[in-house]
Design a protein that fits this description.
416 residues; globular; mainly alpha; single chain; 0% strand
Length: 416
């Protein structure tokens, strides 16, 4: 079985997996590992650098701010230069940021290093999705994209108990040194092994003004603004909580020691991987019976919001299944990329995906930092633990915004 020629060669399915899918999956693995690792190392950062909840929220969310700021330029670059070049260059910045994070000894230095990491991995998912649109048919994208995103779930898994073990063994600073080296290796693999795919002969090369004009078309699209608020609120909240505040909640509200909290985070990541693959498969199967992907998105988002309500009220009777449901349902946003891919031409895939990504990561930055500021309104006890009411207020505020965005998502469908 072969794919279409890329202008230089024709790749078999095995070749596409080895030379396209796996290198981009590795990049997204590292991206999600960087995104999630602070949930585990938060107590070490508090102890070593003396961070408050607000400091920790700002530090961790700096990743999202830099990530968001890079999205629109990355979208243009992906459609003009291709995913291999864009991601290969940016990963070098992530490696530099990881190296600086390993030696930083102040809040300002840690924030700057974290922002550099966010900039460096900002193209990892979008480059992968762009590459998948180049090498796979549109009807396979929900499943293929789900498997790509599952590689990020494996990165989130690596950022839990395995990271806790590594930090206990060698310290959090050497761990970041190792991550810097791994990121350099990923950049080299992209440059050395991934083939470029030439622009089809019937698609003329765009000038920059033309490219910017088509970006305007995306932001004027009703289809885009039907989906973008729900993706931003739900996925932004998911990333803010999973990437940082889940760990402190498990320790402060559920009363779990660091090791047990890291184990729960591990199972959240396992549930994420299952959701990233499983929800895509469910959507594809239901599509055969006339159930739209957008309907699957709406139903799963409603379930996800329900899990957050239980977290907000401090339900600790069964934290493991609760947080696994959170991890499984919280991955539903990946289906929205497939929804948007059907609304715009393949030539706009990079820009449409990064446009929705922009809204999502702005929300993730605001939520992660804002939740820290809200939690800081309550005093910590002698052991540095914050009360359940603090987490309830912070997560509850996110839930209110998510409900509003979910209603906006389903109302047009009822009226159509």
């Amino acid at each position: 079985m072969t794919t279409a020629a890329n202008g230089h060669e024709t790749l078999s399915l095995r070749g596409v997996i080895a030379r396209v899918f796996l290198p981009f999956a590795l990049g997204y693995f590292l991206s999600y590992l960087f995104r999630s690792v602070n949930a585990v190392i938060a107590p070490y950062l508090r102890a070593d650098v003396g961070l408050t909840a607000g400091d920790l929220g700002l530090l961790t969310s700096a990743y999202f701010l830099a990530f968001a700021a890079a999205q629109l330029p990355i979208g243009l670059a992906l459609d003009r230069l291709g995913p291999r070049k864009v991601e290969g260059v940016l990963l070098i910045f992530a490696a530099i940021g990881a190296g600086l994070f390993a030696v930083a000894d102040s809040v300002g230095a840690l924030v700057a290093a974290r922002a550099l990491i966010g900039l460096g991995v900002a193209a990892c998912l979008m480059a992968a999705l762009k590459a998948m649109t180049q090498w796979f048919p549109l009807d396979k994208l929900p499943v293929v994209n789900g498997i790509v995103v599952a590689s990020g779930g494996v990165g989130a898994l690596a950022a839990t108990a395995p990271t806790e073990w590594a930090v206990e063994a060698i310290g959090w600073r050497p761990v970041f040194g190792v991550l810097a080296l791994a990121t350099i290796a990923a950049a080299v693999i992209l440059w050395a092994f991934v083939p470029d795919r030439k622009r089809p002969a019937d698609v003329p090369e765009e000038t920059l003004p033309q490219a910017l004009g088509k970006l305007g078309v995306i932001f004027k699209s009703r289809a885009f603004w039907r989906v973008a608020p729900a993706v931003a609120m739900n996925q932004g909240g998911f990333m803010a909580i999973q990437g940082l505040w889940a760990g402190p909640w498990l320790r402060d509200v559920a009363g779990l020691p660091k090791g047990e909290a890291a184990t729960v985070l591990l199972f959240i990541a396992v549930a994420m991987v299952c959701g990233q693959i499983g929800i895509g498969l469910i959507a594809e199967r239901l599509g055969r019976f006339g159930v739209s992907t957008l309907t699957v998105v709406a139903v799963c988002m409603a379930g996800f919001i329900g899990t957050e309500v239980l977290v907000a009220v401090g339900w600790t009777a069964a934290p493991l299944p609760l947080w696994m449901a959170f991890g499984f349902l919280g991955t539903v946003g990946i289906l929205c990329y497939a929804v948007l891919s059907r609304q715009f031409s393949p030539a706009l895939a990079g820009r449409s995906n990064t446009s929705v990504n922009l809204t999502m990561f702005i929300a993730a930055f605001a939520f992660q930092w804002g939740m820290g500021a809200v939690i800081d309104l309550w005093p910590a006890d002698a052991e540095g633990r914050y009360p359940a009411e603090a987490y309830g207020a912070a997560i509850g505020a996110v839930v209110v915004l998510q409900v509003a965005a979910w209603v906006w998502l389903i109302l047009p469908r009822r009226q159509s």
